[in-house]
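Section 3.1: Structural characterization of target chains.
Under the original work plan, the team committed to producing a structural model for every single-chain target entering the pipeline before any wet-lab resources were allocated. The record below documents one such target. The sequence was received from the expression subgroup and is listed exactly as submitted; it comprises 347 residues.
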Amino acid sequence: MTFILFILILGLIVFIHELGHFIMAKKHGIYVYEFSLGFGPKIFSFKRKNDETEYMIKLIPLGGYVMMAGETDEDDKKIKDDQKLNNKSFLQKMTVMLAGVFNNFVLGFIIIFILGLVYGTSFSSNTLSDLPKDYPLYKAGARKGDKIVKINNISIRTFDDIELAIVINGEGKKINVTLEKKDNTKVTYKNIKPIKDKETGEYYYGISIRNKQGKGILDALKYACVKIVSIFKSLIIVIISLFTGKLGLNSLSGPVGIYQVVGEAAKGSAAVYSLLYLTAYLSINVGFMNILPFPAFDGGQAFLLIIEKIFRKKISMKVKTIINGIGFALLMALMLLVTVKDVINLF
């Protein structure tokens, strides 16, 4: 069941992403050779009447692609120049490149909105509620009504920010917490060490935050917006932390890690909610990663288009192929390392 759910979630995210590229390509009159879900050997394919595109499903379900005319120098000579991607306007090419990212964000927003509508919403703040007196934060001097404004160097507005700051800090490590007291003065409590639960092995600082419940369309819309902003913020901080060395490869997960998360999300009475939220989170994550200006990502292609626009000179197809090839090789190497790490962690 976990494997089926994994395939369904990943397949939906990939399909929505590639559908964005496909729709915009068709809209701009670009000749599309293939629309594929997955890589490797072909399992199933078909063609529609009066449509040049071959639609297919391939064996390895870890991605997909839309193959368009004008992406290489090896196009069919029967294809007209105005049907090739590289001959389209800057705006047309840019919308084709970024349509997949846009679709991923829309999918994430819609799912979170539906969850808020069906299950209700919970808006967290940075204001402390009743704190357990036997835990480190209370013992340090925090009290009900105080606001957490910073943990280490990360600004805090919601409970999502708190969780992110603790993850980046490292499991079981001491944290510095800056509070805004009721009289608006700010106090920093340093080196707060969490206590470890003997049964679960989890670490606790004793942070308890006020939540506000909501229902209805407006609250669901607000909830979706707040969550997407929170996810974006966390992804930006994670990327920065990876480059600065605060986070290492151990913090990244590949297909094996995602498979494990899907299995955990499928457990318990809230499995439907957890799986849907995970789908939304992964979709936004895929969109965010693809918009980064890295070769082989959509953002990398968009970056090259901007360079061409600025210097008013086209980059040769050969140079683009080399850049994308290097980027893809580095990406595969990173995925291999992360996957090996995830497999080792299984044991």
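The mean pLDDT is 90.
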